[in-house]
Amino acid sequence: LGAVSYAEARADAGRCHPGTRANALTDLEMWSYGRGAWEDVKLLILTGPAGHGKSCIMQTFADRLLEKTKRSSSCPVIATFFFKGAVPELKQPTALVTTLTHQVSGQCPSIQPHITTVIHTDRGIFSASLEHQMQHLLV
């Protein structure tokens, strides 16, 4: 669970200083709500050279969305995952689906019985490919 945006392991993660990266954060928010120029964009990829603030932008964005989630049920965020090269278990995608599933089940209790059924009927689910896990646990 060290990969979720609110994990203790991410407490010291960089964040944008107030008033900086405002355009990028506004674009991300518009995309998350499917508004404006981002209305039909289903996947957004933030790219750039190492050290240019991609992780800070995404951590700040995740913090903002999670804060909005506390105040409103209309906020689109239900799960986050941060890869981290310096931490072996966080630089590989093996925990991606299970970490997302854990968070989604906490935000949407109505799907918990489905997840429980999958785990009981597919004993090898956690050793399966990420595609198989995603399809059966989340999709």
Number of strands: 0
How many strands, what sense, and barrel or not for the largest sheet? none
Which class do the helix and strand fractions yield? mainly alpha
Query: In percent terms, what proportion of residues is strand?
Result: under 5%
Question: How are helices and strands ordered from N to C?
Answer: HHHHH
Average predicted local confidence, pLDDT: 87
Query: Any idea how many domains?
Result: 2
**Overall geometry:** globular
Helix content: 40-55%
Low-confidence stretches: none
Q: Helical region count?
A: 5
Radius of gyration: 16 Å
* Termini gap: 21 Å
Protein name: Nephrocystin 3-like N-terminal domain-containing protein
Domain Nephrocystin 3-like N-terminal: 39-138
Pfam family, one: NPHP3_N
InterPro entries: NPHP3-like_N
